[in-house]
Design a protein that fits this description.
- The chain is mostly beta strands.
- Among the domains are: about 90 residues, no CATH class; about 80 residues, no CATH class; about 140 residues, no CATH class.
- Helix content is about 0%, strand content about 55%.
- The strands form 4 sheets. Strands 17, 18, 20, 24, 25, 26, 27, 28, 29, 30, 31, 32, 33 and 34 form a 14-stranded mixed beta sheet that branches. Strands 1, 2, 3, 10, 11, 12, 13 and 14 form an 8-stranded antiparallel beta sheet that branches. Strands 5, 6, 8, 16, 19, 21, 22 and 23 form an 8-stranded mixed beta sheet that branches.
- The longest helix has 7 residues.
- It is elongated and about 95 Å long.
């Protein structure tokens, strides 16, 4: 008879399974006994594997294998499937009829083995506390086993802390060494069959990250995209064809709460090929396909190249954004040192160096200093950006360009009801430039209600129904003051 040994160590609160090893006497240490009459299929039977990973913690896995089945009904055990499979989505094709299926994820561990033996006999082998030699084996009844330790009845005494090991006679049939999908299948013909198991799983995610480098005069940037793949599904995927879907696929929420747990993540940086992932439209989404197989190991992060563009046109803007609250009431001083934002505008067009659907992600921007050292200058998150659209990156605030603003007058012109007010207010905005060269600052004012500018020291542009803008040219080491009066009606 095969026996299983598990080593347990004494802890503060009894026996803690802080270190355990499960061994099968007379069998390889990594195996577990197959169920009688089961047809076991492992990753060694794979003839093809493909992954389609979506944005919201969802992946479609298509696992093609060759198996030999008898005629009639049999039990097929598909091992090395995702531990976070959605069993209700499983579909097996290839000439077999599925009569029943079960997803078994009660895995063989020292703790689960002990738990299954509550109320059953095991063999306890202790060590002499002085010499360390093993004492004669004793039969013990497992009374309790949980995270706090194990309680054993040995003869007429109770043991809660031992120095030694426990020997189990066999593996309970409900424990598996790996997550397994078992199916009762029917076949009209015996022999070798090629089947494909397709299913949805959680635990596989991807995100896009971008690295951009500005040139010396800040008119162009190099734009490189990476896809970061994270595998927390409880399985590895070797030589898989990889596809990514950008877009929001609707998924019905599963009411069952999932414990994601803590995983140890290994980061694997794939070599960056110059060619991008192939992109195509699919339904109302965009599909990106890697042109070579790749391996994603369990608890691993992997990065693969998405795109590379060397000369992308860019426009840098200094923008001062206002607020709409001070058009409704008296405000007075609106700030002595207002921050002026630094933004980059990138047109996603072929003539500007890009021109492909860009998945959502974080763009990190760098620039070389006067000594040629690369420096980080800011980052921003972008949404999915279709072709011909504009990406706007907010990188930070200007150090040498500031502003101060005050409301110089405010009065109510008319109005007696709650929705029939007419206000007139005036403002003075001073933009200061401490740089050695002139700058241009764009002032954006969100003005509520029905509005018009009555007077101004520089012409404005009506950007939207509720936004006025001014372009202020500020000489080096100087300042410029903008004044204007607005009338708003609610």
């Amino acid at each position: 008879m095969r026996a299983i040994r598990t080593v347990v160590h004494q802890g503060i609160t009894g026996i803690s399974l802080v270190c355990a090893a499960i061994l099968f006497v007379g069998a390889p240490a990594h195996s577990s006994p197959a169920r009688q009459g089961e047809i076991v299929s492992t990753a060694q039977d794979q003839k093809g594997l493909s992954l389609t990973i979506y944005n919201r913690d969802l992946a479609l896995i298509k696992d093609k294998r060759q198996i030999t089945v008898p005629m009639g009904n049999s039990t097929l055990a598909f091992k090395e499937v995702s531990a976070r499979i959605r069993p209700e989505t499983a579909l097996l094709s290839g000439g077999l009829d599925i009569l029943e299926q079960n997803f078994e994820y009660d895995l063989l561990t020292p703790q689960s083995l002990l738990s299954k033996y509550v109320g059953r006999q095991v063999t306890m082998v202790q060590r002499h506390p002085t010499t360390g030699e093993e004492l004669s084996p004793e039969q013990a009844l497992v009374l309790s086993a949980n995270d706090n330790g194990v309680v054993l009845k040995v003869g007429e005494r109770i043991e809660t802390g031992i120095s030694g090991r426990l020997v189990f006679p066999d593996v309970p049939p409900t424990l598996r060494d790996r997550p397994t999908l078992t199916m009762t299948v029917a076949s009209e013909q015996p022999g070798l069959k090629e089947v494909e198991l397709s299913y949805l799983s959680h635990g596989l995610t991807w995100q896009a990250d971008y690295v951009a480098e500005l040139n010396a005069d800040e008119s162009q940037l190099g734009f490189n995209g990476w896809v970061t793949l994270t595998n927390e599904s409880g399985a590895s995927y070797s030589n898989a064809q990889l596809q990514l879907v950008a877009g929001e696929v609707n998924v019905v929420t599963d009411a069952q709460q999932r414990n994601l747990g803590m995983v140890q993540k290994e980061v694997a940086m794939a070599a960056a090929p110059r060619e991008a992932m192939a992109e195509e439209s699919m339904f109302e989404y965009h599909l990106y396909t890697l042109d070579r197989p790749t391996t994603i190991l369990e608890n691993q992060k992997k990065q693969v190249a998405l795109l590379q563009a060397d000369e992308v046109s860019v426009k840098k803007e200094l923008i001062l954004r206002g607020n709409d609250y001070y058009y409704r009431d008296q405000a007075g001083d609106l700030g002595k040192r207002l921050e002026v934002g630094v933004e980059l505008e990138v047109k996603n067009e072929k003539e500007h160096g890009l021109g492909m659907p860009i998945p959502a992600g974080v763009v990190r921007v760098y620039k070389k200093d006067s000594r040629g050292f690369l420096q980080f200058v800011g980052e921003d998150r972008i949404e999915h950006t279709p072709d011909k659209e504009v990406m706007r990156l907010h990188l930070g605030t200007a150090f040498d360009v500031t502003a101060e603003k005050k409301q110089t007058s405010f009065k109510k012109i008319s109005g007696v009801g709650p929705y029939n007010y007419n206000y007139e207010s005036s403002y003075e905005l001073t933009v200061k430039n401490a740089k050695e060269e002139p700058v241009r600052v764009k002032v954006l004012e969100p003005i509520p209600g029905d509005w018009k500018i009555l007077s101004e020291s520089a012409p404005h542009t009506k950007e939207t129904a509720h936004t006025a803008s001014w372009l202020i040219e500020v000489p080096a080491k100087s300042s410029v003051t903008l004044t204007y009066t607005a009338q708003v009606r609610f």
